């Protein structure tokens, strides 16, 4: 089914579902499958490997004729000309994250791009609106990845932001199916973003061990690390390594990512940190991206229909 919202109209997509921009993972294999399924596939730049990213964008144009975007994670930008890099690739939609939206929004919009910024709080949302963004991705603390140390759950954060802004809001954190999508819409969102659910999809390039760990996980099998710094806080899969970090802390959280390739693609979950959201506790199988998105839309429609039948 198709669902028309300001998100689908602005991004020219069939389904108001955006794919998370996971470093090293959100590349053409996964992102083209997402776009081809009617959502908005996103290519990452947080890896800093811009030559590889450029090649992945070229592959995307061979693998899909549907819209796709690029994420600029500001804390990980190594190239001072990152904005021009994005513009030169002919990208029309950008998500920015992990930094001040005023840094790049003006340049991107002057070049005619649509810009959504990822925010973890109402204060950050209002700052992004002041910077001139076209939309917001509002991410609750239950999501995987780098987080605000003062985390707020999606159930609280999404309506708080939606009540305060006029731009379209994409809900992130705890989204994996039609029921959670319908919940987000009831709170005021007009689209959703999926991370961990897509991380564990058939087209995801990560090792089977990580996907299986997500399938086997309970909702308590993630940890919130580094709340008191230094460096960013984050949510990750619970392992012996991350449990030790949770209990003892660490001087440099970034040093724990030295073994990222071994974790992501080698399957050694103790070699580093596997960024994973709490929604892992509801994921029970590895499915193709198209099946996930189509089923999500069917479930969304069924959920809305059921709620409409309730007598009040």
Summarize the topology.
Blueprint: H1 6-11, E1 17-19, H2 28-36, E2 41-43, H3 50-63, E3 68-73, H4 82-88, E4 93-97, H5 105-110, E5 114-119, H6 122-131, E6 135-139, E7 145-147, H7 154-162, E8 169-172, H8 178-186, E9 191-194, H9 196-199, H10 208-216, E10 222-225, E11 233-237, H11 240-248, H12 260-264, H13 289-308
Parallel strand pairs: 1-9, 2-3, 3-4, 4-5, 5-6, 6-8, 8-9
Antiparallel strand pairs: 7-11, 10-11
Overview of this structure, please?
With 312 residues, the protein is α/β, with parallel strands linked by helices. It is 38% helix and 15% strand. The chain has helices at 6-11, 28-36, 50-63, 82-88, 105-110, 122-131, 154-162, 178-186, 196-199, 208-216, 240-248, 260-264, 289-308, and strands at residues 17-19, 41-43, 68-73, 93-97, 114-119, 135-139, 145-147, 169-172, 191-194, 222-225, 233-237. It has an eight-stranded parallel sheet with strand order 1-9-8-6-5-4-3-2. A three-stranded antiparallel sheet has the order 7-11-10, with helices on one face. The protein is globular and about 50 Å long. The mean pLDDT is 94.
Summarize the structure in short.
With 312 residues, the chain is of the alpha/beta class. It has helices at 6-11, 28-36, 50-63, 82-88, 105-110, 122-131, 154-162, 178-186, 196-199, 208-216, 240-248, 260-264, 289-308, and strands at residues 17-19, 41-43, 68-73, 93-97, 114-119, 135-139, 145-147, 169-172, 191-194, 222-225, 233-237. Strand 4 (93-97), helix 5 and strand 5 (114-119) form a beta-alpha-beta unit.
